[in-house]
## 1
Amino acid sequence: MALYSEKVMDHFTNPRNVGKLDDADGIGEVGNARCGDIMKIYIKVKDGIITDVKFNTFGCGSAIASSSMATEMIKGKPISEALTLTNKAVAEALDGLPAHKMHCSVLAEEAIRAAIKDYYDKNGIAYDPAEFPEPDEHE
Ligand SMILES: [Zn+2]
């Protein structure tokens, strides 16, 4: 039985949107202790739309595949929609992740939220702090 779906392998070996944006409007960086994954996401925003997104992930294959899929899912979308992206949706889009790797997809969700919060902070845009809880410690 294959441990990883074909989609996970595809996004791991050929990740989309890798790199950084020098003129990013928001940057989110998160990490987890369990695999030592570190994920950094850059977003470019215009009129409330995420016009471009790049990521740098130092981590396991699931973290890289999740970042790649998550950036594809929010590119060209309104911020409001990106905020509703859950790690479950990312994992489903990848045709599933092994249970012990689900926390890697959580990183993608958190990194996106962190980047949007950074964008709000930098631009003095008011938001409800309850929408941006501190990320859990992933032990
Ligand atoms: Zn991981």
Note: Strands lie at 26-31, 38-46, 49-58.
## 2
Amino acid sequence: MLLTRQQKNPETIILKHSSLNDISRILIRTTNWIGDAVMTTPALRAVRETFPEADITVVANPLVAQLFESHPDCDGVIVYDRKGVDRGPLGFLRFCRRLRREHFDLAILFQNAIEAALLTFLAGIPKRLGYTHEHRRLLLTHPVGVTPQLKTLHHTDYYLNILSRYGVVASEKAQRLSLRPDEQTWAQKNMPPGPVAAINPGAAYGSAKRWLPQRFAAVADRLVEEYGLSIILTGGPAEIEIGQDIASAMKSPCQNFIGKTNVRQLMALLANSKLMITNDSGPMHMGAAFQTPLVAVFGPTDHTTTSPWSDNSRIVRHDVGCSPCLLRQCPTDHRCMESVTAEDVMLAVESLMGRPA
Ligand code: SF4
């Protein structure tokens, strides 16, 4: 074990495992969901701080890769498109060969699938660190055992925990995303003038996580009337219909960006909003990373492990016996979401923003 640096608390000495000396090229296999990838960013910073001289490359699917463009804690991104050009066994082997040519010294696996461990093993990366999910133990040189307690950790701590076993720690645990100046300019040019609230009514995981469009519309109208905010709708192509339902149910006008932005533009919209109303979703975690004040409606998911990682947020949920079920579609009456009213959400807005003037 090698003494590398101290935390802010002078009594806490951080030890990097000596087997991680002489690392100059690091591959990070990140997660396949945007929200999870945002929650890995404190762990990514821990890697950067522990290996300040190393070149760090993130491997991600085409959507998640956009999060890490121009990110201060990595030096590059390699897109792994396993549903496109890298599809099938031949595509997988071709991608392994591509990684082999990069001569990485260390692979860190935030993704839990056995495929991630196999990929880095076949790519000839000599050190491979990750959880032992899916019988990956034999493929890892630096395994981290899976315990029942892991399920209770917030996902941000879950990813940090992979690294802390080997003395790779961050000086602070804030999530971080970054935008280029031209992306900020794009948002400012395209958003309505004045303070804006982003309504984000989708959730890629499934319909069980979605609050009702009519209630999003009722909240949006009240934000216009009571707080003088302009409204934008945000989301991906799969949520176009939901956006149209909300826009037509609203009395006030709104600007509908759903299905019209890429991930970087969505990030810029959320970073420049004064408030966000959202389901538990990838964009929710983006908003939290930018410290945009936000209210999140939770139903079937576990609000203790995937809550927004921000003091500038409020969660609205009702205790129903079947939650968290973690199902994509509700098999019963969707009471976890049906029971949340527009008034509940407005009370959460008030606790964040104060009473309307
Ligand atoms: S089963 Fe219960 S927690 Fe799950 S989606 Fe339906 S109402 Fe919500």
Note: Residues 1-10 have pLDDT under 50 and may be disordered.
